[in-house]
Design a protein that fits this description.
Elements (H helix, E strand, L loop, with lengths): L8 H11 L17 H6 L23 H15 L5 E5 L8 E4 L4 H8 L4 E4 L7 H5 L5 E5 L6 H14 L16 E11 L5 E2 L7 E3 L16 E5 L7 E4 L7 H4 E4 L2 E4 L4 E3 L5 H6 L3 E7 L2
Parallel strand pairs: 1-4, 2-3, 3-5, 6-7
Antiparallel strand pairs: 2-4, 5-9, 5-13, 7-8, 8-11, 10-11, 12-13
Helix pairs in contact: 1-6
């Protein structure tokens, strides 16, 4: 919890779970890792001097540092404990539904995700996320619980944790198609470092519509406009696929100073928070998977 300091739903849900068991033993043992407490004290995702705490885990492309060493030690400890399952609870800044993410298309991982809800996202990038590291040793899931400071998010995460601590094994049957909406992240979209962007400054190289986050988890068609640009000569975005390849030209084009999507896709995690966009990314692009 608190891998991103401003995402507090996991902390509140775990706190509530423990409060409910002050006079009785938990049905099973749990291990809790408190992430970026320094950023949490300031209500920030991370400090400018810090790496992203959900990009430091084994498999990361982040340069070695004390944080990556600590993350490696944690995974080693939990591997030795033969951990049953791993749950990483997050919030997002944009207008998104609640959903679960997995890094392996395995029936145990799908079951763990489906327990949270029918909306599930399978992804391989970004690298160095906690769930991907733990997916190598146990079923692992990331929960996206909407915006922070929403009671429904805390209630949903708490109910999920309560169900999970009573699990003794995973079902052997596969998840039924009618029980799940499964999507695959095909690209992560970032603003190029030398490009300026804004939601209200017409002099920025890239000007987004303030309603853009309403595209999240909506299947949009080719030709949909993401924003306007000052010049047709430079693409201000960079889309990277799960293999680390630049696929910007496959997804975006500039037509008459309009930045448009070139193919049918579904965005997620679009936000109006410019600091988060710079620290992380603009959005992810997804496609539907049929089991």
């Amino acid at each position: 919890m608190l891998l991103h300091g401003n995402e507090t739903t996991g902390f509140l849900a775990v706190q509530r779970l423990l409060q409910q068991h002050t006079r009785q033993r938990l049905p099973r043992s749990i291990s809790i890792f408190f992430g970026n407490t320094r950023a949490a004290a300031l209500g920030l995702r991370r400090l400018d001097s810090q790496p992203d705490f959900n990009r430091i885990w084994p498999g990361t492309d982040t340069a070695s540092c004390p944080e990556t060493a600590l993350a490696g030690q944690i995974v080693d400890i939990m591997r030795a404990k033969k951990v049953f399952a791993s749950i990483d609870i997050h919030n997002n800044t944009g207008l998104n539904p609640h959903y679960a993410c997995i890094n392996k298309l395995d029936k145990r991982y799908l079951q763990l995700a489906n327990l949270f809800g029918r909306l599930v996202v399978y992804f391989l990038r970004p690298l160095g996320v906690q769930s991907a590291a733990f997916a190598e040793i146990c079923p692992a899931v990331t929960l996206e619980c909407g915006r922070p400071r929403q009671q429904y998010g805390v209630d949903h995460a708490y109910a999920y944790l309560k169900d999970c601590i009573h699990l003794t094994e995973f079902a052997t049957h596969p998840t039924r198609t009618q029980d799940i909406d499964l999507f695959h992240t095909t690209a992560q979209v970032k603003i190029k470092e030398n490009s300026s962007f804004s939601f209200n400054d017409p002099n920025a190289e890239l000007l987004f519509d303030t309603e853009i986050e309403r595209m999240n988890f909506t299947e949009i068609s080719a030709g949909t406009c993401f924003g306007s640009v000052l010049t047709d000569r430079t693409m201000p975005l960079c889309a990277i696929d799960e293999h680390g390849t630049d696929v910007s030209q496959q997804f975006f084009k500039i037509d008459n100073k309009q930045l448009q999507i070139k193919r049918n896709t579904m965005p997620s995690m679009l936000t109006l928070d410019e600091r988060v966009i710079r620290q992380d990314c603009l959005c992810y692009l997804m496609e539907r998977i049929h089991l």
